Amino acid sequence: MTRSSTLSPEQVSKFDSDGVILLRNAVSADWIDLLARGLDRNIATPTPRHRIWNRDTQGRTCFYDSQAWQMIPEYRQFIENSPIAKTAADVLGTNQVNFFFDAVFVRTPGMQFRTPFHQDEPYWSVKGFNTCSIWMPLVGVEKKSALEFVRGSHRWPQQFRQVDFGEGRDDVSDERYEPFPDIEGNRGHYDIVSWNMEPGDCAIFNARTIHGGSGNLAGDRDLKVFNTQWLGDDVRVCFRPEGMDPDHSDLMQGLGLKPGQRISTDTYPRFEF
User: Where are the alpha helices (H) located in the chain, listed in sequence order?
Assistant: First the structure.
């Protein structure tokens, strides 16, 4: 099922400037079917890290799980053998990437819960600019229900106080951090992009790109997303006193990893091209 995945120089340049690109038909139907089977297995046997982000009065939910690839064989097969690692390396302009973790989001039909606008990298147990997340819906998703991105925000110079929607961070009063901008309340002031997407399409974004949404589902539409996170050349271990989510610090310390090191273990495999 493996095939090469080559980005054009224009696509790489756009990722660098915008912090997000959309790749149509980047993953074949065979791989999407494999991940869908893995997701069914994951929902039936979630990891201890799973959570329900939100449950409304009608019982509609948003299910989340992460770091499941080592117990879900379908996820492992995709990460190790599909073109996705090559895609990550291509977009980052490097010949090697580390896989960081996987995350799944499953919203039941009609779910209206929207993920608040945020950045990913400030929550992570690593720090660096050369990162990408690959957001892949396993079902069709309308633009109004897809993830939204603030174009160019990965290059903003400010360090923002992140929204504590995942119960993974403490309130931060450190003067280094500015209040997070009210994107939702001032949408016209920002260059916000999203797309209609089909299975096999990938939204690839820098982990410092501000993003949110993926709510507002129609009553007959669910949303199933498989997301992978990839680390490039400048990313190093960083344990953040303000909290991390997902918090890999205990795992990393158990593997002998220390702040300032590049991760490279079987838990965070390196792919070279």
Answer: 9-18, 29-44, 73-81, 84-92, 249-254
